[in-house]
Amino acid sequence: MIRTTYHKCLQGRKRAMKMLKNMLQERRAKPSRLQSDFYDYVLEELQKEGTVLTAAIALDLMFVLLFASFETTSLALTAAVKFLSDHPRVLEQLEEEHQTILKQREDPNSGVTWKEYKSMTFTFQFINETVRLANIVPGIFRKALREINFKGYTIPAGWAIMVCPPAVHLNPAKYRDPLAFNPWRWEGMESNGASKHFMAFGGGMRFCVGTEFTKVQMAIFLHCLVTKHRWQVIKGGNIVRTPGLQYPNGFHIQITEKGLQKHEPEQTSM
Ligand code: HEM
How many CB atoms lie within 10 A of CB 149? Predict the structure, then answer.
């Protein structure tokens, strides 16, 4: 029997679904009084009277979220550190933005405030450029609800459409020198998350629900990284697309705390 990649994916999905189903059963049998994670919230919703959620939908949701929330942000952050390592001028400006925030902070012991977060102009340019070039989601699917005529082509009603964000993000008519990593290209541009020329987080009715969360997570990570640490690339960092973004040999960096004279560096594989 030939085991295709697709077949292996189906088997993997089956195994993952079985694990999630067991977890659901365990938690139903022994419900915790405190909601400790998202699964507990799903369970609570499932038990509400008149809910539209079924166990099958809940399990599907949990399965999708494993990819949607974990794989995406970790890939984006890895790409971000790689871009920073390859572009010292970008790192310099990012550091400057975050050092200014620290200098102006009234209470040196406070965490990042909402006002500080909203002031991270260059950080948002950097995040936009990272997700534009990273093209973490290589395809978005839609269904033609009615016949569509587009540039002389007809898409019959009911057909599946695959939108390809990389084709949009690397379009030289919209992005000058599209393969260059250039956060400054976003200067003065309103970034509301989605447009015809920027769809790293999708668009329309199925626009990524995690977009703002991702931006907060990335901005806070970058804030801590550039204000408290320095790092050195050890190995890896090669990028392949299969078609998703992958680092076949990982991306290994050595992180040291800023300001510490003698410190045993941690080696981190991203
Ligand atoms: C760099 C990080 C991320 C990227 C690049 C990304 C990208 C996307 C894209 C392209 C879509 C498809 C939208 C469409 O079909 O138009 C999507 C959907 C979705 N994303 Fe994200 N995402 C990220 C992070 C997250 C996070 C952190 C979460 C959850 C905490 C999340 C949850 C979802 C969900 C639930 C959907 C489905 C929305 C729906 O179908 O209505 N994503 N994401």
Answer: 8
Distance 177 CA to ligand 1 centre (A): 27
Q: Among positive and negative, which fits the CA dihedral 208, 237, 12, 218?
A: negative
64, part of any domain: no
> What are the angstrom distances between the C-alpha of 98 and each of 166, 173, 230, 258?
30, 33, 14, 14
Residue-wise pLDDT for 38-55, tens only, equals 888 888 888 899 999 999
Which residue range forms the structural domain that includes residue 44? 1-53
pTM: 0.88
pLDDT in tens, 174-197: 999 999 999 999 998 876 678 889
What residue owns the CA closest to ligand 1's atom 18? Answer: 208
Residue 73 in contact with ligand 1 by CB distance below 6 A = yes
209 lines ligand 1 (CB under 6 A): yes
